[in-house]
Amino acid sequence: MLRKAGANWVDGDRFHDREFDLEALMERVRDGTHTLLTAQRRMGKTSLVRELLRGLVTDGEFEPIFVDLEAANTSEDAVAEIAVQSRCAHVAWDRIKSGFVNVLRELGERVDSVSLSDVQVKLRAGIDSGNWRQKGDEVFTALAGHDRRVVLAIDELPILVNRLLKGHDYRITPERRQAADEFMSWLRKNGQAHRDRVTLLLSGSVGLGPILRQAELTAHANIYSHYDLKPWDNATASNCLAELSETYSLELPPEVRQDMCRRLRWMVPHHVQQFFDCLHEHLRRERRNQASLHDVDVVYSVDMLGSRGQVGLDHYEGRLKTVLGTDLYRIALDLLSEAAAPEDRLDDDTLTLYREHYPVANDSDRHPIETVLHVLEHDGYLECCTGEYRFLSGLLEDWWWLRHGGSFVPIRRRRG
Question: What is the pLDDT of residues 265-322, one digit of tens each?
Fold first, then answer.
C-alpha cells in the first residue's frame, strides 16, 4: 500500500513508480559510468538515489556510499564528509583511518562506535588548505581498494561549488573561481583515475551545469553522463492519487484526479503527493471521504497556493537567488513575472526590450538575459515553446503570480 511521502526523501512503501529510472541508473552503475542526475526541484532525485543505493545493498555486488554536501563550505569540508561517510565500507575505512592516525588517536578503539559527527570533526581537524588534495586522493585510493566496487553518490555538490565560486555575497572573483576550478579538477582527476573501482553519481537541488557555465568551467563536467529525471506523466500521477486514496479510504473519482493533474500541469511527484495530503486533511475536517471538483478548487486555492504551500515553494525562490546572485536574480524576477502575467507574453519582442533595459557588463561577452534564461530553462522553471517562454508547472506559475503579480509592472508599460 502506498503511503504519504512527507517532505523528505522516501523509500520502500513510500516510493512510487520510477522503475525505468532505477533500471537505467543500475545499468550505468554496472557499466562504471559516472552520472550527473539533473531535474527540477522536488522531482525525487534524492529519493531515487536512495532507493538505488538500497537496492545495491541487497544486490551485494557494490558498496554504496551516500554523501550530502549541503552543509559543506570548503573543499576541506567535502573531503572530510566523503571520508567519514565511507565508514560503512570497512576495508576502505581501515585504510582511511591510517591516513588520519594523528587526529583520530584520542578516540582510540572507540573510533568505530562514536557518532559520525564526532569522527567528522576529528577528520576535519586534520585537513587544511595545504593538504586537502593529498588527503582526498588518499580517500579515493582507499575506496578504490575496497573489496567491492564503490558507488559514491554525492548529493548537493552544486551547492558546494556555488559557494566556492561566489562566497556569501554571490560574486565571482578570480580567487573563488580558482577554488572551484581546483575542487572540480580534483574530483574529475580521481573519477578518471579510479573509474573501474569507484563510480560517481552526482545530484543536487540546483543544476551544476549553469553554475560551471557562469565561471567557464564546464570542461570539468565532461566525464559525467547526464541523466535527466522527468516528471510523472498524467497516468502515473493519477495512479499515485488512486493508490493513496485506497490506502486512506477516500473516494477520488477519475474527474477529480484529472482536475488535480490539470492544475499542477507538470507532475512533480512531491506536488502530486502534497496535493493529496491537503485534500485528505480538508476532507477530514469536513468529516467526508469523497472528494468533489469543488473540493479540489478550494484546496488548490487555499492550501496549495496559501500559507501552507508557501514553505515548499519559497525554496524555489531561495535556490534561484543562490545560483544567480543578487543582480541576476532581479532579472529572473522580471522574466518569471512576465511569463506568469495573464495578459502578457515572454516572447522574442519582450525579451528584446529586456535586453535593452539591462546592460551588458564590461567584462562579459554574454548578455545577462541569456545567462538567466539558461538557468531558468535548465532548472525547470520555464520552457521555450513556439517562440515564447512559459512556466512548466501550473502550480509554480500560479504561486509566482500571487506572490509577485501585485507589484509587477510589465516591461512594455515601463517603456511608456
Answer: 999 998 999 999 999 999 999 999 999 999 999 999 999 998 776 666 787 888 888 8
Specify whether 219 is located in the same domain as 94: yes
Q: How far apart are the first and last CA of the chain?
A: 59
Structure confidence at residue 59 as a pLDDT band (50, 70, 90): confident
Q: Which of these, 80, 97, 228, 82, lies nearest to 153 by C-alpha position?
A: 82
Q: How far apart are CA 342 and CA 401, in angstroms?
A: 9
- 3-state secondary structure at position 114: coil
Beta bridge partners of 199: 151
pTM of the model: 0.88
Q: Which residues contact 224 (CB under 8 A, 6 or more apart)?
A: 34, 35, 36, 191, 200, 202
Q: Do the beta carbons of residue 74 and residue 164 sit within 8 Å?
A: yes
Furthest-apart CA pair in the chain: how many Å?
75
State the total domains in the chain. Answer: 3
Written as nine digits, the cell of 87 is 565508514
Domain ranges, residue 212 = 18-228
Pairwise CA distance, residues 80 & 99, whole Å: 12
**In the predicted structure, residue 4 carries a pLDDT above the cut 70:** no
